Amino acid sequence: MSIRLLLTTSLIVVFVVPQVGYAQSAEPYNHAAVWRAWDFAARNSYVRGVIDGAINVYIAAAEEWLAPGEFLKTPKLRKVTLVERRVFVGEVESRIPAVITDLYGDPANVYIAMVDMVYLARDKLEGQNIDPLLAAARKRAIELHRLTNR
What we know:
150 residues; mainly alpha
């Protein structure tokens, strides 16, 4: 599979398919309702799929965009470290679904995309103050809804 096809397919699955419900709706898509409808196994599978997809795209992109040897260079290049920080989840993965469930308990968060919630939950588990990130994700959800309902 070519890198372009892999990247395109991954982006469509993660970002476009969930947005189909937005089209011509008076209210933004309620991701929390979908999340709550899933059982424990489905929630874990979703989180694992987001993480696996992100890692797969990261590796494919790195092989395409970095010079040979830069990907595994020690110490790591700053750009590699920055991207890894955004993509990788680490030791908190198993606790992410419970934190997403907790975050969706706040009515202000119900429109935040599940893919965003995976990384918000990771950041919360790592002790970061996610309040500004939640505010940005809420705003992005509303802007996406407005954009798709013109």
